[in-house]
Amino acid sequence: MASVNILLVDDNQENLLALEALLEGPDHKLITARSGEAALRCLLDQDFAVILLDVRMPTMDGFETATLIRGRERSRHTPIIFLTGFESNTVNLFKGYSLGAVDYLVKPVVPEVLKAKVAVFVELFRKNQDLQHQLERIRELKQDVKVHKRINEERRILLAREQAARAEAEQAVRQRDEFLSVAAHELKTPVTSLRGFAQTILRQMNRTNSIDPERVKHALEAIDQQSNKLSLLVSQLLDISRIEAGQLRLDKQPTDVTGLVRNIADIMRPGMTLHTFRLNTPDSISTLADPLRLEQVVTNLIDNAIKYSPDGGPVQIDIWLDEEDLACIAVTDCGIGVPVEHRDHIFDRFYRAHAASHFGGMGLGLHISKQIVQLHDGILEAEFPPEGGSRFIIRLPHLEEDQ
């Protein structure tokens, strides 16, 4: 059991010795002071279960000392028992109690009474210490609980991040494997066609030592078509590599969007059999762009409009300035559209909304197109009209004619 301090304050050494003899015990420590000043010094760095304070002392009496004791935060609630050598009158009693005294004893004190009163305050002090220790332990436990909760929460967050990273990595691996499979298939198709038509011509020459001009023309047209397809696939692979490495460079210059789109339509129109163009364009709208890259994006959107409307129909192309003064190009088709569950992913790398169909492709066209538009400080977005089909809109900063 920890020792408890009791402060004895009296200017008379004999009185202090008498109190020490009366209160001496193994469970508490008696500390003496022969003046109010000495008592206050003791209270600077020690706590006491009770203070026995003589009222009549020179320089600073018991009442003044009690006032200063109560004025200090550390000793404000320490019990004080006044000791006096004369019969207390009502005024002194009132003054003592008003200063926070818990009792008022007249010398010579009755030993049993004093010991009983001191014992009560010592016990109260011990219980208060125990209570403070318990409260401190509770605070520590609460802090431990908070720390434990925080650690568990951090572990949960780290685990969630790890699981998300693992899922993302697994998804990336699946996409890579699917892409390699698709890329191999897409590249193999034109290569096989090129080889097949070349072998056809060679076999004819080996058999007859002559060439059928019509057959050769057909073969060369097929070879040209397949080589263009092969060139496009290789270009997409190179583009995605440059984009991921941050090495896709643009040669920006003032570009007439209307003229560029009309030129693309004129080039593509002769090869269209089931589709027609509907152009709604102003005379001229300009932007600062790389003409070849912007042509690549528009051509890809038109190719998609044609590919995903296999039954034919119009391909609508609109050009306008929106309310934010952005130059807009919209390509709209009446085709099969995009299923709702795929719409959030159509611009993802390697993503194919119709992967199980016969439309082909490596899932790179829209992703590359969006990256190119973003490099132009623009936006590429998709809309899906309720009547069906798809509408892709390019929004680019408008370049005023005097800029």
* Structural shape: rod-shaped
According to CATH, the homologous superfamily of the largest domain is Histidine kinase-like ATPase, C-terminal domain
Distance between the termini: 91 Å
Reported for the largest beta sheet, the result is:
5 strands, parallel
Using only C-alpha atoms, the radius of gyration works out to 48 Å
State the order of secondary-structure elements, H for helix, E for strand: EHEHEHEHEHHEHEEHEEHEE
Based on the coordinates given, report the CATH architecture of the largest domain.
2-Layer Sandwich
| CATH fold annotation of the largest domain | Heat Shock Protein 90
* Poorly predicted spans: none
Query: Could you estimate the helical fraction of the residues in percent?
Result: 40-55%
Total strand segments: 12
Number of helical runs?
A: 9
* Main β-sheet, spatial strand arrangement: 2-1-3-4-5
Strand content: 15-25%
Secondary structure category: alpha/beta
Number of domains: 3
Q: What is the residue-averaged pLDDT?
A: 82
